[in-house]
Design goal:
The protein has 862 residues and is of the alpha+beta class. Among the domains are: 134 residues, Herpes Virus-1, CATH 3.30.40.10; 113 residues, Zinc/RING finger domain, C3HC4 (zinc finger) (Herpes Virus-1); 136 residues, Cysteine proteinases (Cathepsin B, Chain A), CATH 3.90.70.10; 142 residues, Cathepsin B, Chain A (Alpha-Beta Complex); 40 residues, Ubiquitin-associated (UBA) domain (Helicase, Ruva Protein, domain 3, Orthogonal Bundle). It is 27% helix and 16% strand. Strands 13, 19, 23, 24, 25, 26, 27 and 28 form an eight-stranded mixed sheet that branches. The chain has a five-stranded antiparallel sheet with strand order 2-1-3-4-5, with no helix packed on it. The longest helix has 16 residues.
Length: 862
Amino acid sequence: MAADLGELLVPYMPTIRVPRTGDRVFKSECAFSFDSPESEGGLYVCMNTFLGFGREHVERHYRKTGQSVYMHLKRHVKEKATGAAGGAIPRRRNGKVFLDLELNRDFNGEDYEYEDEAKLVIFPDHFEIPLPNIEELPALVTIACDAVLNAPSAYKKQEPESWEEEIQVSRHARSLRQLDNGVRIPPSGWKCQKCELRENLWLNLTDGAVLCGKWFFDGSGGNGHALEHYRETNHPLAVKLDTITPDGADVYSFEEEEAVLDPHISEHLSHFGIDMLQMQKRTENGHHTDNNSRPRVSEWEVIQESGMKLKAVFGSGYTGIKNLGNSCYLGTVLQVLFSIPDFQRMYVGNLQRIYDYSPLDPTQDFATQMAKLGHGLLSGQYAKPPVKSELIEQVMKEEYKVLNWQQKGVSPRMLKSLVSRGHPEFSSNRQQDAHEFLLHIINLVERNSAGSENPSDVFRFLVEERVQCCQTRRVRYTQRVDCCIQLPAPIEAATNREELLAYEAKRKEAEENMRAPPEPVRARIPFTACLQAFTEPENVPDFWSSALQAKSAGVKTSRFTSFPEYLIVQVKKFTFGVDWVPKKLDLAIDVPDFLDLNRLRATGLQAGEEELPDLMPPIVLPEDTRDNSMSSIDSPEIDETAVMQLAEMGFPLEACRKAVYYTGNMGPEMAFNWIIAHMEEPDFAEPLLLPSMMDPGPSTSDSPLGTAPLGSSPPEESIAILTSMGFPRNHSIQALKATNNNLERALDWIFTHPEEEESDAVSDMADTEPNDNAFSNANSHSDSTLSPDRDTTGPRVKDGPGRYELFAFISHMGASTMSGHYVCHIKKEGRWVIYNDHKVCLSERPPKDLGYIYFYHRLSSS
C-alpha cells in the first residue's frame, strides 16, 4: 500500500510545497466564500499556493491552475456530553490538528467540542488519503502536510510581520533640549512657516517650528523646509503633525536619517500645548474618565435600543457582520453600501464573471473580495433561521430567550486585510472614524472600476463655489466634484439654549465647590439650522485676489450644480479642544425623513456680477512685487478710523493700513482677523504698495510676474514630472488642467480616469479648451439625465431632482472616533432594521436624531 501511494503521488510531487517563512496558509476560510472547516463541505487547502477553497470553488481553482493536490479539512462541532452531576465533560479529539485555527468559537463557547478530520484529496478523481499517514506517504509530502496543519492562521501571522523592520529609540529622545520660547501649537489650521503649505507638515520638537517635508515622486510631500531648518539649527527631532494619536506619533531624526521612537513624546508635545496624556486618559479602553460619562451611557442604550425586545430577522439582506475587534466602523459602512442596488448589481450581479476572471491569488483582488462579502450578505446562506428542533431545544433551556436566537453572520477578515493594507490607521486594531473609512472605500471602488461600471458614481455630484473679493466685489465661479456634504452643528441655534446655559452654570459651580456635577443636558438643534449654517458664506483663508494681484479678504458660498442619486450627509459631531483632546458634541438633530434641496441648486454668474480675472498667483518672490509696485497710482481709500483702532492695539501702522485695505474697509474686526492671519509674513509691517499690474497697460502674457490665464497649458515642469512616471503627455495635461495644476490631485485624477483608446481627438480638444468646459453640460440639466458622462475628460455625474428620502444612517456611541461603537439602521421593505455587528433585528424606535452619517436616496419625479 505504501508503494502504491508513493507511485500515485509521484506525478504531483513537483507541485507540493512546504510552507516557507512568509507564506500565508489560508486554512480557516475560503477565498471566494465564507466556507470554513466547520461548513458542511469543509475546506480544501491547495498544497502549492496554500489558498483555501470551499467545496463549490475548489474545482474552479483546479481548472484554472492545474493544481491537483489539496488538503481537505473538516471540523465536526458537537455538544459536550454531560456527566452525572449535569456538568460538561471537557473532551477534545485530535486537538493538535488545527493549531491556531480561527473559527466560530465565539459562538460555540464552552458547551461544544470539536472532532477534527484531515485528508489529502487528488483531483480530478477525488482520490482521498486520510491523515496522518506517516508510514505510507513520501517524506516530502509528510513534512508538507505537517507544516500546513501546524502553520499559524494567515491573519495571525500578519501582525508580527508588519513590525519586521523594528524602529529604534532615538539617542536624542532622553536628552532633547526644548526651547522655552512660548510656542503653542493649535489643534488645526497648520501651515509651513516658509511656504504656507498645509500638507506633510512636521513639528520640530526643539523650537516648535512647523515646516514642510520633502517632495515625493507621487506628487505628495513639500519643499523640504523641515530639513533646511535642521541644517540651519541642528535641532534633530521632528514629529509629523497629522499622525499624533493617543498611542504615539511618527517621529523622524534628521541626524540619524531614519524614523525613530521617542519614549518621551507625550512630554515633548505637551511643551507645545499638545496634551497627549490627557487624551489617553479620556479614551483608554473606550471610556471617558471625566464626569461627563453619564450622557454616554444613555446614548448607548438609546442607539442600541437596549431596553426593548427586538425580534431577530433572517434571510437575504439580513446577514450580520462579525466584529473583529474595533471593526464595527467597517461593518456598518459595508452594510449600507450593499443595501444600494448599484453595488449589488456590480459585485453580486457579476459574481460569476468576477470569480472566473479573478487573479491566481483572489485574496488580493478587490473586486473578488467585495463580491464575496456582497454574496455573503445577500444570499441568506449565513443568516438562516433556526429549525424547529433547535427552537424546542432552546425553549427547554431558557424559554425567555426564544426571540434572541442570533445568526453567526460573516467575518470580513479577508476584505479588511486587503482594503487596510498600507494604511496606518485602518490596518491597526484601533477604532476608526466611519466617515473616513467610507471615503476610503469609495476611493478604492473608483480605482478598481477603471474601464467598467463604477457603483460609487451614485454618490458623486458637482459643487459650484462662488468666491467674492471683499475689496473689489468681483466674483469667481468654479466647480468641484464631491460625494458627501458635511453639515455644521451650530450649538448657538439649539432650541433648549436656556437649559444648556443653566446646566453650564451649574456645572461650573459644582466644579468650583467640589460637588457632583448636575445631570447633563443634550443640545437639540433643528435640522434647518444645520442646513442654514451649511449655506452661509465663509471666509477664505489666505485668499489671493487676481483683481488686486495681492492677498485680500474673500468669502465663499457653495451650491449644488447637480444632485446625486444617493446623498451622504455627515454631521460634524467631532471636534478638537485647544488641549488636543478629541471631543464629541453631545447633541440631537431632528433629521427629516424627506429632504428637498432644490432651492440650493447653483445659478451661475448673475446679471451685474463682474468676474475676477483668470490670473494665477505670482510664482516669483515678494521683492519683485515691491520693485514693480514703486510706480503705484494714487493712494487707496482707507478707513483711517479703523486703522487707528488697530494701531492702538499695538500693531504696526502700515500693517493696519494694509489690513483695512485688503478687507475692503469692512471694519476693524475683519481687519483684525487679517492681521492675525498674516503676522508671520516677512513684509507684514512694510508700507502698502499697489502693484503696477492694476494699470490697464501690458497684457497678461507680458506680465513681469509671469502669470497666465487658467486656460493656458500647465507648467512644463509639472508635465515633465508626470511623463517621467510613464504617463502619456496628453493624459498628463488633462489631469493637470482638471486639478488646477496640483500634482497630487493630478495623480489621483489619472488613476480614476484611465486614458481611452479613442481619446486622441478629445485630448487635442482638451489642450485648447479651458478645464471649466468639462462641467458645462451639468448646469443645463435639471431632469434625471446622465449629464457629463458623455465628456470623457469630466467626472461621471448623474443629475436629477433634489428631493430625497432617508433610507439608512450610521450612529456612533462613545466620546470620540478613537473609541466607542458603531451601529447602523437601514430601511428595508418598509421596516427599519438595526445592524449591530452580527445581530440583526427589527428596530422598534430608530434613533434618527442621534445619527452621525445619513444616507438619502432620490425620489423619482412625479
